[in-house]
Every structure is written in C-alpha cells, then in structure tokens.
Design brief:
Length: 171
C-alpha cells in the first residue's frame, strides 16, 4: 500500500512541476507584494511593505537565488535565558516556516527561502507566518499556519494567512 502511494506521488511530481508557476524573480515578487500591500516599495535590494500594521523588509539576492523576509521584534539586550529558550522551542514546534533570529543586537522574525523555486502561496504564507511570529512574541510564539489545539488566538493568526492568500489569488 505504501509502495503504491509513493509511486503515485513520484509520478505526479514531474507532471505537476511542468504545469507549475514560473520561477520567482523580482518583477513577479513585486506583483505579488503589491497585491498584498498596494504601497509596497522596491528599495534596490528588496522590498518594504506593511502587513497587519507590521513593517516587513524583504531582501532579495537573485545571484545567490535567495530571499529573506524580516520583521524587527525587539532589542536582544535584556532577553533572559528563559526568553531565549522559549524562542528556540518555538523554532522547533510552533513558528513553522518562520523563525526567530538574532542579528545586529535585535530579535527578528524571519522567513528564508530559495528565490527561483518559491511559489506564490509559499511566499504569502511565509510572510503571514513571519508577521504572526512577531505579533505573538511573548505570548503564543506561533506562526499561526497550523492549529494544534483550541483557542481563539490560533484562529485569528490563521485568518491573517487566509486573508493574504485571498489578496494574492488572482496573480
């Protein structure tokens, strides 16, 4: 049974890839981001936009075929060992595709992905998760894409991702 399932997956993969989206590049990313935030701006190395009142910076390196979305959360100064441990735990189980990261004395929410294979829905979901990770710092520490239990806050976080996916639907 498992062998048959794996065979079907293997056969569907190449066919699905042939009908897939074009490779992600700066113009395509700009089109998607403009659907999410009509005031998104290209700044030479990437984009700046706002999602749910949260500033998002996206750095793109086409030569290295990488992209990184980042949201500043707070100064890393004064973070307790318990807070550091909690963000590391979240990176393992609740941040999902987004991650907490430390750089230049700040705690960031980040989403990092190879550029050209990035699909529209992956980008949109990754941005939503990154914003959710920033918004839930200090409480749920969650990307919000999956719900592992009851509670209103998880549904609210998932709603952000659903709203962003809907805005990007026609691209």
């Amino acid at each position: 049974m498992l062998r048959a399932f794996l065979f079907v997956l293997a056969m569907a993969g190449p066919a699905a890839a042939q009908q897939s989206e074009p490779p992600m590049d700066l113009p395509r990313m700009g089109e998607i981001l403009a659907a999410l935030d009509p005031e998104a701006e290209f700044n030479g190395r990437g984009f700046e936009l706002t999602l749910s009142d949260v500033p998002v910076l996206i750095i793109v390196d086409p030569v290295a075929d990488r992209m990184r979305a980042m949201v500043p959360i707070r100064s890393a100064d004064g973070m307790t060992p318990e807070e550091m441990e909690r963000v590391m735990q979240a990176n393992f189980d609740t941040a999902l595709d987004a991650r907490y990261a430390l750089a230049r004395g700040r705690l960031w929410a980040t989403y990092i992905h190879p550029l050209s294979p990035l699909k529209k829905d992956q980008l949109i979901s990754g941005l939503g998760q990154t914003v959710n990770v920033a918004l839930t710092y200090g409480t749920l520490y969650s990307g919000g894409a999956m719900s592992f239990g009851g509670g209103d806050s998880q549904d609210i976080q998932r709603q952000l991702i659903e709203d962003l996916l809907e805005r990007g639907q026609d691209i």
